[in-house]
Amino acid sequence: MDFTLTAEQKAICDNVAETCGKFSDAYWLGKDTTGDFPIEFHQAMAKGGWLGITMPDEYGGSNLGLLEAALMMHQVARSSGAMSAASAIHINLFGPHPIVKFGTDDQKKRWLPELIHGETKVCFGVTESNAGLETTAIETSAVKTGSRYYVNGAKVWTSTAQQANKIMLLARTKPKEDCLNRIEGLSLFYTNLDRDYVDIRLIDKMGRKAVDSNELFIGDLPVPEEDLLGEEGKGFQYLLHSLNPERILVGVEAIGIGQNAIARASQYAQERVVFGRPIGQNQAIQHPLAESWMELEAAFLIAMQAASLYDRKEPCGLKANAAKYLGGEAGFKACTQSLMTFGGMGYAKEFHVERLLREVLICRIAPVSPQMILNYIAEKALGLPKSY
Amino acid sequence: MDFSFSEEQTLLKESVSDFVKSDYAFSDRAAVLESEEGFSRKNLKTFADLDWNSIPFSEEDGGFGGTAVELMAVMEEFGKGLVVEPYFSSVILAGSFLRKAANSSQKEIHIPKIIDGSKIYAAAFSELQSRYDLYDVKTSATKEGAEYSLNGEKIFVLGGYAADTLIVSARTSGKPRDLEGVSLFIVAADTAGISKENFSTVDGFKAANLKFENVKVSAGNLLGEEGKGLAILEDVAAEAIIALGAEAVGALEILYRKTVEYSKIRVQFNQPIGKFQSLQMIMSEMFIEHVQVKSMLYMAVMKFDAGEDVQKSISAFKVQLGKAIKFIGQNAIQLHGGIGMTDELDVSHYFKRVTMIGVMFGDESYHLDRYVRLSC
After folding, report:
1. What is the four-CA torsion angle of A355, A360, A361, A363, rounded to 10 degrees?
2. Is the ipTM of this complex over 0.90?
3. Pseudo-torsion of CA A48, A52, A54, A59, nearest 10°?
4. Are B241 and B311 in contact (CB under 8 A)?
5. With bands split at pLDDT 50, 70 and 90, how would you rate the model's confidence at A303?
6. Which range of residues forms the domain containing residue B246?
7. Entry pTM
8. Looking at the structure, do residues B50 and B179 belong to the same domain, yes or no?
9. Cα dihedral A50, A56, A58, A61 in deg (nearest 10)
């Protein structure tokens, strides 16, 4: 059992931190105010080769594992950009995973290089308002006529659709009632996001303002059959492969944001003097911050363990879910406590911790709620009957 | 809205408080627990002599005609002293069945015996499978001519160890969990066919599990209408929660006060631990929890006496009580440290008593669920 990072892994952390460090508090507060996509940051990360960190080297990637990706995203989220920075590039890491795993050689050649270089931007059309976490309940349909599918339906919470020219799209190709089980009948497409057929509406939201979230209304979107990934009807199974990585990454992102918040609060608590001494000398200030520090460290370790299991191709579902749960909860608590440490100033945008709190909340909600994780752990780790 | 006690109520509270202070020191109580019966007959006589047994009974039944406020006053003071005599189980709990359901001749026979303290009564209504559901009754009562024949088992009969007379719930019709068909009986504890298994509870009380085998009870000892016992059981339970809850509120007050006192005298790193902010914060919250649960108790008592929304406010109180018991009880032990775990210090005894009260007549989650059901 060795908890040390390799020289290469350390270099990843240092380099990513250095790149992220070039983007100041003022830069990210500006993006938070205008809602403009952090294109400069995205380009800097692409230029550094970070977008293809998990992609195969024959297509220009670095072919590194999830552990390295997690280390990288931890550093990104720990920077001032928090979730806005993380989400701007997050999707490049595991979004294209189904292509790597299930795409044909031709598809890989067509799609991967430009993704890795940051030339194409992809968005993800999976969730629907009536489906929520019950992904198999989606209603968007793809009907084949000749050599084309025609897609109709609506998607929600599609990130980066304002910039994207490609979409990874989940749609039903076989009516639910004709399917043998609930995971059958859904297919995955990677295709052009043609705005002639897709109406994209921005959702204004609480945090992560610089990375857009959208509602998509899709009407007769033509999809050539060569844009179908793998076999028809197996799309949901393909997606499952990227669920664990996503959970681990969201977990470490929450942890990074929480650590940033705790660092800012500790700094402030040393400087701010009330009743003749720094407020950091009060146990009411110290203890909650110390508690958060421990929770974040513990959550980080389980995330690392989950990533290491994944890279060794061992089952990692329990640990991946635990990492997302613990990270999300600890990050949220740390940000809240940080804001409370700042007192009234924490409420002011110029101290940035209120932004971190708004940014971290998504990690509690997405990609799966804490309650669903508790259900999962109860069922899979404890052997208790399914409750829903 | 008046939260102050009348002069009479104040006098009553003071007389119980005086008894606890002068005759019920921790060492006195320890001696009582060591005794064979586990309580003091002498103390029971004192309760009768000071007329505390008559408090819940109406004036026409020879009682004092007290309301829930008087009950609360007595029980809160008993709680401060961890009084183990079967006052609650006999006078309040068993007595409550008689007050609410007995006919005049039954009242005439039984109530004077409770008031003068000559006999001890106990109520047997829990069964192995029933948990907190008062209607979950398997024990059967079959009518045979002018008699009923009782068969079944009752568990955790508080004060059952020393009881002369029992109030027993038994099913005269229907299935075990039917709401209808539960009847109540007055049964002499020495009736043929009753066997007893006595045990001590963690909080220093005594209880019994009872077995009924063809126990004959005359129809004249049916308490209330046949098959309509559930409403009475629910009324009785509401009053029992107020009484036990008041006892717990008294005990919780002692727990937080003792913790604060201890924190001022226990020195670590050259300073009393009470100077540590994190401990001060916990103790402030213990204080707040106590005030909060005491306020909920007052609300429940007032609603009970006014007869409005009784069951809902009782459940709300019991939920808050469960929270307060955990928070104050557990932190009292935690802040005392190792010494809080010992038998020599009274803190652990208070903790055990309030923990028991926390689960009696329904725990926190049971009452939260019940509150939700009553609100919809």
Report:
1. 160
2. no
3. -130
4. no
5. very high
6. 231-375
7. 0.82
8. no
9. 0
Residues of B with Cβ-Cβ distance to A287 under 8 angstroms: 278
Torsion of CA A237, A238, A240, A241, to 10 degrees: 130
CB A190, CB A111: distance < 8 Å: yes
Residues B220 and B264 in one domain: no
Are B114 and B12 members of one domain?
A: yes
From B87, B118, B149, the end of a domain falls on B118
Pick from B206, B227, B248: which residue ends a domain? B227
Q: Is A22 on the interface with B (CB under 8 A)?
A: no
Structural domains of chain A sorted by starting position, each given as residue range(s) with its CATH number in brackets: 7-116 (1.10.540.10), 122-233 (2.40.110.10), 237-380 (1.20.140.10)
Q: Walk along chain B (376 residues) and give the pLDDT tens digit of each residue.
A: 677 899 999 999 999 999 999 999 999 999 999 998 999 999 999 999 999 999 999 999 999 999 999 999 999 999 999 999 999 999 999 999 999 999 999 999 999 999 999 999 999 999 999 999 999 999 999 999 999 999 999 999 999 999 999 999 999 999 999 999 999 999 999 999 999 999 999 999 999 999 999 999 999 999 999 999 999 999 999 999 999 999 999 999 999 999 999 999 999 999 999 999 999 999 999 999 999 999 999 999 999 999 998 999 999 999 999 999 999 999 999 999 999 999 999 999 999 999 999 999 999 999 999 999 999 8
Virtual torsion, Cα A381, A68, A19, A260, nearest 10 deg: 30
pLDDT digits (tens, 9 = 90+) for B94-105: 999 999 999 999
Give B162-192 as a DSSP string.
Answer: T-SEEEEEEESSS-TT-SS-EEEEEEETT-T
Contact A282 B277 (CB under 8 A): yes
Q: Does B276 touch chain A (CB under 8 A)?
A: yes
Number of structural domains chain B divides into: 3
B273 contacts in A (CB within 8 Å)? none
A interface mutation test: which of B269, B271, B273, B277 has the most A CBs within 10 A? B277
- How large is the greatest C-alpha to C-alpha distance in chain B, in angstroms? 79
Any residues with CB less than 8 A from the CB of A243 and at least 6 apart, and which? A320, A367
Tokens 């775990």: give the residue: B341
* Whole-number Å distance between alpha carbons of A82 and A76: 7
What is the mean predicted confidence (pLDDT) over A307-325? 96
Residues B79 and B97 in one domain: yes
Residues B294 and B355 in one domain: yes
**A277 in B contact zone (CB under 8 Å):** no
pLDDT in tens, A211-238: 999 999 999 999 999 999 999 999 999 9
* Chain A CB within 8 Å of residue B278 CB: yes
My answer on whether B134 and B98 are in the same domain is no
- Which chain A residue lies closest to B275 (C-alpha atoms)? A283
Flag whether residue B281 sits within 8 Å of chain A, measured between CB atoms: yes
Structure tokens at B328: 């104050």
**B54-69 per-position pLDDT tens digit:** 999 999 999 999 999 9
Largest Cα span, chain A? 80
Strand partners, B118: none
